[in-house]
C-alpha cells in the first residue's frame, strides 16, 4: 500500500502542520509513518512548550496529553533537563517570569540533582505547577537508579502530577515500587515513597515489618520508615508487632547488635503501643506518650554496609509563615483593616501541590462589631483542595502483597 499525500510531504512541512494543529497527537496516532518522521528534538521541544507551559482548551484533555508526553520513550531525564534549560533559561527562573514581572526569588540554575533545595511558595510557583498529568509507569518501578530518582523527585516538587489511583495496575505498581526500593536498599527512593502522599499511603507497621524481615533490615531505611509510621500512622497491628519482637529476640540471641538497635527503636516508637502508655509485650515497662525516636541510642558502627544515615528532608520541615489577613467592610463607611499574622505550616509537598492542584480562594461573609456597630466583612481564604477518597481507592493505596 502506497503512502498517502500527506505522508509524502517533506519533514519541514509535516512539522509545520503538526505545530499549527496544536501538536495534535491524533496525527501521530493515525499514521505511524508520520510519527516516525516527526521523531526529532525540534518536534519534542515544541510539544513540551505547547502542553507543559500554557493552558489550552479543557483541563482534562490537556492532562491526558501531559500524561502521554511523560509516558513516551523520548521523555528521558536528560531530554527533560535540556528542555527546562532551553525553555526557562531566557527568564532565569522556573517561574517563567523576570523580576519586573513578579519573580522575587529566582531559582536558577535549577538544581536537578535535588529539586527540594529550590524554594517556591504560593506567590512564587514554578511554571510547571499547573501540570496535572499522571506519573508514568517508568518512574514508579525499579530498578532504582539516580536518574530515575532525580526525575521523580523533580516532578513531585515542581508539578501537580499524581499516580493514577483509579487504575488498579498503576496503584499496585506504585505500592510495589516502594517495596522494591526497600529490597534494593535504595534510601533515596524509599524516602520519596515514605514522605510523599501522592505516591501512596504512609508507612505502617506492615511496611516496617517488610523493611526488617523481607528487605534485610537496612537501618537507614527502617529508621525512615519508622519515622513515617510515627508521623502519619498511630495504629498498631498485633500480628506484625509480635513478629518484629520475635525477630529482635532471634537477632539478640545470635549476638547481633542490630537486634538490640531495632528493639530500642521500637520502644521509642508509637506504632507498637496499645493505648497511650502501656507496652503489652513487656508488662514491666512503660513508654512516654510521644514518640522519641533518636539516632544516638543503641547506635553502633557496623562498617560501610551497616551505617545509620538520616537525611534532613525538605518535605517534612515545619516552616514558619507570615502574612496578612485583610478584612474589608462592604457596607456603610467602607474600611479596610489589615492584620499581621504568623502561623506554622507543615510542608510535606511545597504549596498546594500537597493536594490535587490549584484551588480558588473561598469567600466568607462575617459580621463584626466595630465602634458599636455591626458590619459585614469579606474574608478570603485559600483552604486545601483535598477531598476524601472512596474506600476502594484507599484500599488500593494501603494494601500490598510483594511479588518478586
Keywords, separated by commas or semicolons:
404 residues, alpha+beta, four-stranded antiparallel beta sheet, 14 helices
Explain what you see.
The chain is 39% helix and 10% strand. It is α+β, with helices and mostly antiparallel strands. Among the domains are: 6-71, no CATH class; 202-313, no CATH class; 316-381, no CATH class. A four-stranded antiparallel β-sheet has the order 2-1-4-3, with no helix packed on it. A hairpin with a 2-residue loop joins β3 and β4 (373-381). Mean pLDDT is 76; it is low at 274-281, 320-364, 380-390 and 393-404.
Q: Give the integer mean of the pLDDT values.
A: 76
Specify the structural class.
Answer: alpha+beta
Assign an overall shape.
Answer: elongated
Unreliable sequence segments: 274-281, 320-364, 380-390, 393-404
* Order of H and E elements: HHHHHHHHHHHHHEEEEH
Could you give the distance between the termini?
Answer: 45 Å
Gyration radius, in Å: 26 Å
By DSSP, the count of extended strands is 4
**Strand order, largest beta sheet:** 2-1-4-3
Largest sheet data? 4 strands, antiparallel
Name the beta content range.
5-15%
Instruction: State the helicity in percent bands.
Output: 25-40%
Number of helices, counting only DSSP H or I runs of 4 residues or more:
14
Amino acid at each position: 500500500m502506497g503512502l498517502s499525500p500527506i505522508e509524502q510531504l517533506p519533514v519541514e512541512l509535516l512539522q509545520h502542520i503538526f505545530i499549527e494543529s496544536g501538536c495534535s497527537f491524533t496525527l501521530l496516532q493515525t499514521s505511524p509513518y508520520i510519527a516516525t518522521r516527526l521523531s526529532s528534538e525540534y518536534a519534542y521541544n515544541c510539544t513540551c512548550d505547547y502542553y507543559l507551559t500554557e493552558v489550552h482548551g479543557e483541563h482534562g484533555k490537556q492532562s491526558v496529553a501531559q500524561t502521554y508526553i511523560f509516558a513516551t520513550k523520548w521523555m528521558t531525564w536528560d531530554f527533560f533537563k535540556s528542555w527546562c534549560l532551553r525553555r526557562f533559561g531566557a527568564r532565569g527562573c522556573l517561574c517563567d517570569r523576570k523580576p519586573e514581572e513578579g519573580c522575587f526569588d529566582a531559582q536558577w540554575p535549577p538544581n536537578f540533582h535535588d529539586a527540594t533545595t529550590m524554594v517556591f511558595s504560593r506567590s512564587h510557583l514554578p511554571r510547571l505547577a499547573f501540570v496535572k498529568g499522571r506519573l508514568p509507569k517508568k518512574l514508579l518501578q525499579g530498578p532504582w537508579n539516580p536518574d530515575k530518582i532525580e526525575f521523580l523527585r523533580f516532578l513531585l516538587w515542581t508539578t501537580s502530577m499524581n499516580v493514577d489511583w483509579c487504575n488498579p495496575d498503576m496503584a499496585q505498581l506504585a505500592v510495589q515500587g516502594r517495596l522494591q526500593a526497600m529490597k534494593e536498599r535504595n534510601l533515596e527512593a524509599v524516602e520519596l515513597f515514605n514522605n510523599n502522599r501522592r505516591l501512596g499511603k504512609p508507612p505502617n507497621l506492615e511496611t516496617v515489618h517488610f523493611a526488617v524481615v523481607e528487605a534485610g533490615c537496612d537501618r537507614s531505611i527502617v529508621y525512615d520508615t519508622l519515622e513515617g509510621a510515627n508521623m502519619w500512622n498511630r495504629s498498631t497491628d498485633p500480628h506484625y508487632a509480635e513478629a518484629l519482637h520475635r525477630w529482635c529476640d532471634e537477632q539478640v540471641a545470635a549476638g547481633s547488635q542490630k537486634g538490640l538497635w531495632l528493639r530500642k527503636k521500637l520502644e521509642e516508637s508509637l506504632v507498637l503501643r496499645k493505648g497511650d502508655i502501656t507496652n503489652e509485650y513487656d508488662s514491666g515497662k512503660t513508654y512516654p506518650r510521644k514518640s522519641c525516636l533518636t539516632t544516638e541510642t543503641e547506635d553502633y558502627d557496623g562498617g560501610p554496609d551497616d551505617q545509620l544515615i538520616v537525611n534532613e528532608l525538605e518535605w517534612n520541615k515545619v516552616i514558619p509563615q507570615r502574612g496578612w489577613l485583610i478584612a474589608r467592610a462592604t457596607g456603610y463607611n467602607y474600611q479596610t483593616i489589615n492584620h499581621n499574622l504568623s502561623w506554622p505550616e507543615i510542608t510535606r509537598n511545597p504549596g498546594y501541590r500537597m493536594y490535587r492542584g490549584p484551588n480558588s480562594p473561598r469567600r466568607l461573609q462575617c459580621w463584626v462589631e466595630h465602634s458599636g456597630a455591626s458590619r459585614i466583612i469579606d474574608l478570603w481564604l485559600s483552604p486545601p483542595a483535598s477531598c476524601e477518597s472512596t474506600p476502594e481507592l484507599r484500599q488500593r493505596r494501603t494494601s500490598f502483597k510483594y511479588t518478586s
